[in-house]
């Protein structure tokens, strides 16, 4: 079975495009959602995070103190890299284990940091969902009720879209003009042929 990754910067609509593939019966792994669960369940991650960031990382009930951790790492690139170095390998392995259990022509893994984390290296092909900066800003500001500056700050922590295009095997344009379904179906047919 082929292992396919799908990604895109914040506000490109990668989750929406992923839902189209999922509605066609494609096995689907949401790396960002799974990472949230794994950060609570994995003893390796728990020990690593407590070692690096302190016992405040988890509450007395065992829940991850997400806001506290986010405040600690998102303004400090070195701490963010440290966090990702603890979490990403475990999530990448979980996705590989999940893929081994799937059946069909291909499975799809959605991850916001597919290229940044290096997890694209364990995949056969990748799909990038792309949209203009203005459209991405508008979408995220409306969805998350945040300022333009806050969205730009989030975007600054992701690989630029132009750089991602150099890694992508397929690109889906989500500009609210070009129909999505024909693009998804064309990629689906190519993957079935492979």
3D shape: globular
The helix tally amounts to 9
Strand order of the largest sheet: 2-3-1-4-5
The CATH architecture name reads: 3-Layer(aba) Sandwich
CATH topology-level fold name: Rossmann fold
**Separation of termini?**
10 Å
> Could you say how many structural domains there are in total?
1
How would you characterize this protein structure?
With 194 residues, the chain is α/β, with parallel strands linked by helices. It has one domain (2-193): Rossmann fold, CATH 3.40.50. The protein contains 9 helices and 5 strands; from the N terminus they run βαβααααββαααβα. It has helices at 14-23, 31-41, 43-53, 66-73, 77-100, 133-144, 148-156, 161-165, 180-193; strands at residues 2-7, 27-30, 106-110, 125-130, 170-173. The protein has a 5-stranded parallel beta sheet, sandwiched between helices. Helix 2 packs across helix 5 and helix 3 runs antiparallel to helix 5 (77-100). The longest helix is centred in the middle third of the chain and has 24 residues, at 77-100. The chain is globular. It starts with a strand and ends with a helix. The model has no long low-confidence stretch (mean pLDDT 93).
Short description:
It is built from 9 helices and 5 strands. The chain has helices spanning 14-23, 31-41, 43-53, 66-73, 77-100, 133-144, 148-156, 161-165, 180-193, and strands at 2-7, 27-30, 106-110, 125-130, 170-173.
Layout of helices and strands, plus pairs?
Elements: E1 2-7, H1 14-23, E2 27-30, H2 31-41, H3 43-53, H4 66-73, H5 77-100, E3 106-110, E4 125-130, H6 133-144, H7 148-156, H8 161-165, E5 170-173, H9 180-193
Helix pairs in contact: 2-5, 3-5
